[in-house]
Write a structure and sequence with these properties.
single chain; 349 residues; alpha/beta; Purple Acid Phosphatase, chain A, domain 2; 6-stranded mixed beta sheet; 5-stranded mixed beta sheet; 13 strands; 29% helix; 16% strand; globular; Ap4A_hydrolase; Serine/threonine protein phosphatase; Calcineurin-like_PHP
Length: 349
C-alpha cells in the first residue's frame, strides 16, 4: 500500500491534543480529564487527535508513542507527524532526542532523566511512524503540525505512490544540490567549521553567521515536508537562542495569509497560558498574546501547543520556573473549548 500523506478523520466529536513531547504523566492526567479510559476509549464515542511532536525532551517518549500506537490500532486515536517525528525518520539527531539517538545523550543531559527506547524496537517504531499522515481533515476541519501551505501540498500530491521516507530523501537531495551550488555556500561551510559549536552555547552568541541564516531560510521554504512540519521562516532582526542553538531565522505567521473557510488546528508554536517574566517567549510575539483566541486573516487558525515541552525547565530550575507555566491542552471539537491536564477548562474566542 502506497503512502497517503493526507488522511480523513471520522465524523465524531474530537479532542485535539497539543504537542506532548514525552510528558506521558501529563497526558494521562489530560486523558482522564477528558473522560477517556486508560486505553483511549471514550464512552460517548469521542476520538483523540494529536497534532504531532509526541516525543523528545520529556521523560517518557517511548511510553507516549507506545500508548498512541495501541490506541491508533484500535481506531481511537489519530495523529499528524511533527518535526520531531520526522527527525527520527530522517535519522537526524536533534535537540531533545537523546532517548532515541545515543549521540545526543551528552548534549541532552539537561533533559535527563528519560526512558530510552530499546534498540530492538527502533525499526518497528520507525516503520509505523512512516505510515502516519502529514495532514488530517474532514468537511469542517484541517489539522497539520505547523503550516497549511497549498504550494507545498501540491508537491506532495505529485509524489503520490512514493513512500514518506523516499519523498523526504528526494526533497532533501534536490534541496542539497540547490544549496551547494549557491554562491554563498562556501561562506556557510566556513561558518559551520568555525562557529557551529559556539552556536549551542546559550550564554554567549557566536559571531555573525549570515550564510548560515541564509541556509536555514532556504531550507525551511524549499523542502515541502519540512515546511508543513516546521513552518516557513524569515530572516530574524537579530540572532536569538531557541531549540538548543542560536538562530538567524525566525518563524513566519503564515496564518495571516490563510483565507480559506475551513478552520485549521496546529501545534508547534509554543503558547503560554499564564505568561510571566520567566515564561518561554510565545514564539517571539508571533502568536496573539491572549492564549484563548483564534488567529489569522479569518480568525480560524488555532495553536493548541501550550508549552508542555518546556516542563523540564521547572524540574531543573524550580526557583525560576513554575510548573503551571507549562501546560498540556486539548481543544474539544466542535465545542471549541480547551481542557487542560489539571482539569481547568476555557472557551476559545
Amino acid at each position: 500500500m502506497s503512502y497517503s500523506y493526507r488522511q480523513f478523520l471520522p465524523d465524531t466529536p474530537l479532542d485535539i491534543v497539543g504537542d506532548v513531547h514525552g510528558e506521558f504523566a501529563a497526558f494521562q492526567s489530560l486523558l482522564h480529564r477528558l473522560g477517556y479510559r486508560d486505553d483511549g476509549f471514550h464512552p460517548r464515542g469521542r476520538r483523540l487527535v494529536f497534532v504531532g511532536d509526541l516525543c523528545d525532551r520529556g521523560p517518557d517518549s517511548p511510553a507516549m508513542l507506545a500508548w498512541f500506537k495501541q490506541a491508533y490500532e484500535r481506531g481511537w486515536a489519530w495523529m499528524v507527524l511533527g518535526n520531531h517525528e520526522l527527525n527520527i525518520l530522517a535519522d537526524d539527531p536533534k535537540d531533545g532526542s537523546g532517548w532515541f539517538f545515543d549521540v545526543r545523550a551528552e548534549k541532552d543531559a539537561h533533559y535527563a532523566p528519560w526512558h530510552c527506547v530499546e534498540e530492538k524496537e527502533k525499526t518497528e517504531l520507525c516503520a509505523w511512524l512512516a505510515e502516519q499522515p502529514l495532514l488530517l481533515e474532514r468537511e469542517d476541519l484541517r489539522i497539520v503540525h505547523a503550516a497549511w501551505l497549498p504550494p507545498q501540498i501540491e508537491c506532495l500530491e505529485e509524489a503520490k505512490g512514493e513512500s514518506l521516507t523516499a519523498q523526504y530523501r528526494r526533497f532533501d537531495a534536490e534541496l542539497k544540490h540547490r544549496l551547494q551550488t549557491a554562491s554563498w555556500y562556501p561562506d556557510y561551510l566556513y561558518e559551520q567549521a568555525h562557529y557551529a559549536p559556539q552556536a549551542e552555547n546559550p550564554d554567549h552568541a557566536p559571531p555573525p553567521m549570515p550564510a548560515t541564516a541564509r541556509y536555514e531560510l532556504e531550507r525551511s521554504r524549499l523542502h515541502p515536508i519540512r515546511a508543513l512540519t516546521s513552518g516557513v521562516e524569515r530572516l530574524a532582526d537579530k540572532p536569538f537562542y531557541a531549540g538548543g542553538r542560536w538562530r538567524g531565522t525566525t518563524r513566519c505567521a503564515w496564518w495571516d495569509d490563510y483565507r480559506d473557510d475551513k478552520p485549521v488546528v496546529i501545534g508547534h508554536y509554543w503558547r503560554s497560558w499564564q505568561p510571566s517574566p520567566a515564561a518561554v517567549a510565545a514564539e517571539r510575539l508571533l502568536l496573539p498574546p491572549q492564549p484563548d483566541v483564534w488567529h489569522g486573516a479569518r480568525r480560524n487558525v488555532f495553536c493548541v501547543d501550550f508549552s508542555i515541552g518546556a516542563s523540564w525547565r521547572a524540574r531543573k530550575f524550580p526557583q525560576k520556573y513554575r510548573p503551571e507555566q507549562f501546560r498540556l491542552a486539548a481543544l474539544r471539537w466542535p465545542e471549541k473549548v480547551l481542557v487542560f491536564e489539571n482539569g481547568e477548562c476555557a472557551a476559545t474566542r
